[in-house]
Amino acid sequence: MINKLTELIKEAMQYAEHRRDIGELYKPYEEYIAEYLIDNNTIVAPCKVGDFVYIDNRCIFSEFTNGYTGYSTCEVISIVRTKKQKLIKITPINAQAQNMRYNLRVPFSAIGKTVFLTKEALKGEGK
Predict the structure, then answer these.
(1) Residue 115 near residue 58 (C-beta atoms within 8 A)
(2) Nearest to residue 60, comparing CAs of 121, 102, 109?
(3) 111: which DSSP letter?
(4) Burial (CB count <10 Å: 0-12, 13-18, 19+), residue 63
(5) Three-state SS for 54?
(6) How far is it, in rounded angstroms, from Cα 94 to Cα 73?
(7) Contact 106, 118 (CB under 8 A)
(8) Which band of pLDDT confidence, cut at 50, 70 and 90, is reported for residue 29?
């Protein structure tokens, strides 16, 4: 894995230098490298372990949130990659307070729909 990533970084640097040589360096050098890595399916997680995210309570099955249509704060426990999808494993803060072992796995595609990374994004969603 580390060898493949090292190889991708070297190729990305060559790509950025080639762009600079032909006079197309209108973006910062780092943006060319990031663009190359994303185009080659390198995973960039939208959040880190330990971050707090906000999830729609309709996705949480708990007697504490039943019937409540707001949003709950959750902590990111881990980031899981399966053969078919990439998931974020989270646990609600109210479950931690009640000593419950309740975890959810949500796909990366849920970010911006039912899971929000910041309160500003949550307010922008209109809830």
Answers:
(1) no
(2) 102
(3) B
(4) exposed
(5) strand
(6) 8
(7) no
(8) low
